[in-house]
Write a sequence for this structure.
């Protein structure tokens, strides 16, 4: 269930130049951005710049284990939750984030633009670091085993 807590903070739409800057600079917010299937498609469409901007803010907040993700521009709850969905699909390194329980946001009662979202985590920063090291070891092992294999054999190895 989504909880909506009202705040009287006015957040206007951000300008087209700001939207374009977010789309052009998403590479600096999200590593290997061009390899992110869904997120990279957002940069092609100016209409989706709000979702991409939200994704960038949520990504950096989750990466830094912040409890609150603040949006300094006007986005709707729908855009923020669409960004969360795309991050869940495209960014497996955010496995510390509890996408299912990240559902509290704060909005302006007059415009329904949200100003911030509370993020929920499945683990602590230290637990995440340990699990990430385990993941890197598995990846290194698979890469070592795949050395010299054909593309088809590599696919069979992974699956």
């Amino acid at each position: 269930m989504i909880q909506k807590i009202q705040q009287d903070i006015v957040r206007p739409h951000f300008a087209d130049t700001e939207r374009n800057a977010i789309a052009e600079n998403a590479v600096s917010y999200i590593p290997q951005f061009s390899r992110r299937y869904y997120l990279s498609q957002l940069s092609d469409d100016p209409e989706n710049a709000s979702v991409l901007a939200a994704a960038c803010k949520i990504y950096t907040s989750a990466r830094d284990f912040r409890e609150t993700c603040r949006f300094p521009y006007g986005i709707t709850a729908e855009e923020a939750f669409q960004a969360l969905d795309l991050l869940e699909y495209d960014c497996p390194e955010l496995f510390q984030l509890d996408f299912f329980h990240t559902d509290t946001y704060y909005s302006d009662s007059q415009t329904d633009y949200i100003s911030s979202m509370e993020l929920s985590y499945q683990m602590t920063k230290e637990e995440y670091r340990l699990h990430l090291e385990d993941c890197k070891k598995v990846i290194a092992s698979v890469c070592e085993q795949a050395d010299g294999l054909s593309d088809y054999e590599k696919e069979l190895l992974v699956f």
